[in-house]
Design a protein that fits this description.
The complex is a heterodimer of chains A (368) and B (300).
Chain A (H helix, E strand, L loop, with lengths): L2 H25 L3 H22 L4 H24 L5 H23 L7 H6 L9 E4 L2 E5 H19 L1 H9 L1 H6 L4 H23 L1 H16 L5 H26 L3 H19 L5 H27 L5 H4 L2 H7 L4 H13 L3 E4 L2 E4 L1 H12 L1
Antiparallel strand pairs in A: 1-2, 3-4
Helix pairs in contact in A: 1-6, 1-9, 1-10, 1-11, 2-3, 2-4, 2-9, 2-10, 3-4, 3-9, 6-9, 9-10, 10-11, 10-12, 11-12, 13-16, 13-17, 15-16
Chain B lengths: L1 H8 L1 H26 L5 H20 L4 H25 L4 H25 L21 H20 L1 H9 L1 H6 L4 H20 L4 H16 L5 H25 L5 H19 L5 H19 L1
Helix pairs in contact in B: 1-2, 2-6, 2-9, 2-10, 2-11, 3-4, 3-5, 3-9, 3-10, 4-5, 4-9, 6-9, 9-10, 10-11, 10-12, 11-12
Classes of the chains: A mainly alpha (368), B mainly alpha (300).
C-alpha cells in the first residue's frame, strides 16, 4: 500500500471513529467536554510514562483515558456542588490538569522530549512509519489498527445502547424513571469520547480529533432531525472532509490535520448558509416571503373593508396605500404588482378593485 | 528578603511579575462578566481562534513585533466571537458546539497558515508559533507597558458602562425592555474578553488562558453576593496569583510561569470553594454538624 493511501485510510478511520463518538456528545450539548478531555489527557500520558519508566503505549493509553474520566468526574462534581456553572467548571478543570502535566514534564523530564506543542498539532503524516507487526510480519500503520478498532468499538456501543442513549439524551427524566441509570450511561459515553480522543490524538493531534468529534454531528444536525440519518450523515461528513482535506493538503503541501480541520469548517460554513430548512439563506427567504404574504393579505383586507363604500375610489389608490398603511412608494407598488400577478387585484385608471379570488382571500383572512 | 529586592531591581523578574499581575487584574475583572453570563469557555475558544490572525498579520506585514501580532490576534478573535454569537442567535446550535467549531476550525486554519509561512524558508519566522504558547519569562518592558495600556482601556470601558453591563449580566431581557441595545452591549462586553486574551497569549498561552478568565471570578464568587465586591476580589486574586506564580517560577528555575500561575489559581479556587464566606462548602458541613448536635441535646 502506498504511503498516500495509508495516510488517507488513517484519516478516514479517524473521521469514522470520532463522528460516532461525537453524535450523542453534541446532542447532549456537551461538545466542549471533548476539548477539555483532549487537553487534560496530558498528565495521564505523563503518569503512564512515570509508571512505565519510559514511553509505553499501553500505560500511556490507560493513563490518558483515566485522566479524561477524571476531567469528567471533576466537572460533574463542581457542577453538582452548585457553586460553579458547568461551563466555568470545564474552564477550570482542564487548564489545571494541563498545567499540572506541563509542570511535571518541565520539572522532572526536562531532558525527555515530550513536546507540548505536538500534543496540539499532531502529525498524521508520520502515521505510516509507526507500523504494527506480529511475528515479523508488517501489518500496516499502528494508528490504522487503533482507529479502526475504535470505530468498531464505538459502533458496537451505539448499536447496543442505542435505545438507552436516545431516551436519556432526549428525556433524561423518563430514562431515570424507567431505571436506565443515566449516570452510568453518561460515564460510558464520556469514556468512549475519552478513549476515542486518546486514540485519535496520537495520530491526528488534539485539535483535529476535537474537530472531527464536534463538527460533523453539528453540521448534520442542520440537515436532519432524524437520529439514524444524523448518525449516517455525521459519518459521511467526517470521512468526506478527512479525504478532501488530505487531498488538498498534499496538493498545496500544507499541514494535513490543519487542512482537514479547515475543510470541516468549510463544509460547516456552506451547510450553515445553504441547509434547506435551517440554513441562513433559507431563513432569510422564508422571512421575506412571510412579509410579502402578510402585506398582500393586508392589501386585500384593506380593499375589502372599503369596497362598496362612498370612499372606495380614494381608498384604493396607490398614493393612499402609502399614507394609510405607511408603506414606501416602491414597496406599495411591489406588493400591488405581486397581488395582481396572483390574480387577487385588478387596477383600472389608478384605482384598484378586488377579483373574486381577492375577495375570497380577504374573507378567509378576516375569519382567521 | 532578597526576593523583594529582586522584584524591584531584577529586570526579568520585575517584568514577569508586573506582566502577570496586569493580566491577572484585567482577566479577573472581565472574567466576572464571562462567568456570570455563562461564557466561561469563550476565552478558551477565542484564544485558539487568534492563531490564524497572528499568522496573517505576519504574512501581511513581515513583522514579528508583539504589537503587530497582538493586532492580528485581536482581529481573528473578534471575528471568531462575532461568528459564535451569530450562530447561537440564528440557529438551534447550542453555544458549546458553536464555540467548539470556531475553536477547532480557526486553529486548524492557523496551523495551515503556519506551514505556509514555514515553507517560505524565511529565517525571520522562527518562533512565531511560540507567540501562542506563552513565554512570560521573555516579557520585555515595552510589552508590559503595552499590556497595561490596552488592559487599562478595557477597564475604563467597564467602569463607564458598569451599570449597563451589570444589568446585562443578570437580566438581559429587562435590560432590553429598558431600551438598552442588548445585542450591541453584549457584543462589546464579550469583545472586551478578546482584549484580555490578547494580553494573556504571550504570558500564559492559549490553553491556560481559559483559567485566567474563569478561575479568579469563580473563586471571588464564593466570598460575596455583590457584583462590585466580586469584581474587586477577582482582580485581587488574579493579580496575587500572577505575582506569586511569577515569583515561584523564577525562584524554582526551569519551571514555566503560565502553569505555575494556573496552579496558584486552582489552589485559590479550591480554598474558596471550601471556606468562602458566602457559600463555602465547609460551612455547610459545620452547620449540619451543629444541627445534629443540637438534635442530640434536645432529645437527651
Amino acid at each position: 500500500m502506498s504511503t498516500f493511501a495509508q495516510v488517507a485510510l488513517v484519516a478516514v478511520a479517524a473521521g469514522l471513529s470520532c463522528a460516532l463518538a461525537g453524535v450523542f456528545l453534541v446532542l447532549r450539548r456537551m461538545a466542549m467536554m471533548a476539548d477539555a478531555i483532549s487537553h487534560a489527557i496530558l498528565p495521564g500520558i505523563v503518569g503512564g510514562y512515570v509508571l512505565a519508566k519510559g514511553p509505553n503505549i499501553f500505560l500511556g493509553f490507560i493513563g490518558a483515558t483515566l485522566a479524561g474520566l477524571l476531567t469528567v468526574f471533576l466537572v460533574e462534581a463542581l457542577t453538582k456542588s452548585k457553586r460553579v456553572k458547568q461551563d466555568s467548571a470545564i474552564g477550570l478543570v482542564f487548564p489545571a490538569l494541563f498545567a499540572l502535566g506541563v509542570l511535571v514534564v518541565s520539572k522532572f523530564f526536562a531532558n525527555v522530549h515530550i513536546d507540548t506543542d505536538a500534543v496540539l498539532y499532531g502529525e498524521i503524516a508520520f502515521a505510516p512509519f509507526d507500523t504494527f507487526s506480529i511475528g515479523g510480519r508488517d501489518l500496516g500503520p499502528q494508528s490504522l489498527w487503533v482507529l479502526g478498532g475504535l470505530t468498531l468499538v464505538n459502533a458496537a456501543f451505539l448499536i447496543v445502547f442505542y435505545k438507552e442513549l436516545k431516551l436519556s439524551t432526549f428525556d433524561a427524566g423518563l430514562a431515570a424513571t424507567l431505571g436506565f441509570l443515566p449516570g452510568l450511561l453518561h460515564y460510558l459515553l464520556m469514556g468512549m469520547v475519552a478513549v476515542t480522543t486518546v486514540g485519535a490524538f496520537s495520530a491526528v493531534g488534539a485539535i483535529l480529533s476535537v474537530a472531527l468529534i464536534i463538527v460533523p454531528p453539528v453540521t448534520a444536525s442542520l440537515l436532519t432531525r432524524r437520529l439514524p440519518v444524523l448518525i449516517g450523515l455525521s459519518m459521511l461528513i467526517g470521512t468526506g472532509s478527512a479525504m478532501l482535506g488530505y487531498q488538498l493538503s498534499s496538493a498545496w503541501d500544507v499541514s494535513i490535520s490543519g487542512m482537514i480541520a479547515t475543510t470541516l469548517g468549510a463544509v460547516f460554513g456552506i451547510t450553515l448558509m445553504a441547509a434547506p430548512k435551517q440554513g441562513l439563506v433559507a431563513q432569510l427567504l422564508r422571512r421575506r416571503s412571510q412579509r410579502t404574504q402578510f402585506a398582500t393579505e393586508m392589501l386585500v383586507v384593506h380593499l375589502a373593508a372599503h369596497e362598496a363604500t362612498p370612499q372606495q375610489d380614494q381608498e384604493s389608490t396607490l398614493l393612499h396605500l402609502e399614507q394609510e398603511l405607511g408603506w414606501e412608494s416602491n414597496r406599495a407598488a411591489q406588493i400591488v404588482s405581486i397581488a395582481e400577478q396572483r390574480g387577487l387585484v385588478v387596477s383600472q385608471d389608478g384605482a384598484m378593485a378586488l377579483t373574486v379570488e381577492g375577495k375570497g382571500l380577504a374573507r378567509a383572512v378576516s375569519e382567521r | 528578603m532578597s526576593i523583594f529586592h529582586d522584584l524591584i531591581y531584577d529586570y526579568t523578574l520585575r517584568n514577569v511579575a508586573l506582566g502577570s499581575a496586569v493580566l491577572g487584574i484585567v482577566s479577573g475583572v472581565l472574567g466576572c462578566f464571562a462567568v456570570l453570563r455563562r461564557q466561561g469557555l469563550m476565552g478558551d475558544a477565542l484564544s485558539h481562534a487568534a492563531l490564524p490572525g497572528v499568522c496573517l498579520a505576519y504574512m501581511l506585514t513581515g513583522s514579528k513585533t508583539p504589537v503587530t501580532l497582538m493586532l492580528g490576534a485581536a482581529a481573528a478573535g473578534w471575528i471568531g466571537m462575532l461568528i459564535i454569537l451569530q450562530i447561537t442567535r440564528r440557529t438551534r446550535i447550542d453555544p458549546g458546539s458553536a464555540l467548539g467549531i470556531i475553536l477547532t476550525v480557526f486553529f486548524g486554519l492557523g496551523v495551515v497558515l503556519l506551514t505556509v509561512i514555514q515553507k517560505g524558508n524565511d529565517a525571520n519566522q522562527a518562533g512565531l508559533d511560540k507567540f501562542l504558547f506563552g513565554q512570560a519569562a521573555a516579557l520585555v518592558e515595552s510589552q508590559v507597558v503595552t499590556m497595561a495600556v490596552i488592559g487599562g482601556i478595557a477597564l475604563l470601558i467597564v467602569t463607564a458602562l458598569y451599570k449597563e453591563f451589570k444589568l446585562l449580566a443578570f437580566d438581559a431581557e429587562f435590560a432590553g425592555t429598558l431600551g438598552l441595545r442588548t445585542h450591541a452591549l453584549g457584543t462589546l462586553l464579550t469583545g472586551l474578553l478578546v482584549v484580555a486574551i490578547v494580553i494573556g497569549l504571550n504570558t500564559v498561552g492559549v490553553i491556560l488562558m481559559s483559567a485566567m478568565l474563569v478561575a479568579p471570578a469563580s473563586a471571588a464568587r464564593q466570598w460575596t453576593n455583590s457584583l462590585s465586591h466580586m469584581i474587586l476580589y477577582s482582580a485581587l486574586i488574579g493579580a496575587l496569583s500572577g505575582l506569586v506564580g511569577a515569583v515561584l517560577s523564577v525562584v524554582e528555575t526551569g519551571v514555566p510561569t503560565g502553569p505555575v500561575i494556573v496552579l496558584c489559581l486552582a489552589a485559590a479556587v479550591i480554598f474558596s470553594l471550601l471556606f468562602g464566606s458566602a457559600q463555602g462548602i465547609a460551612w455547610d458541613w459545620v452547620r449540619r454538624l451543629k444541627r445534629r448536635n443540637g438534635m442530640k441535646e434536645t432529645t437527651t
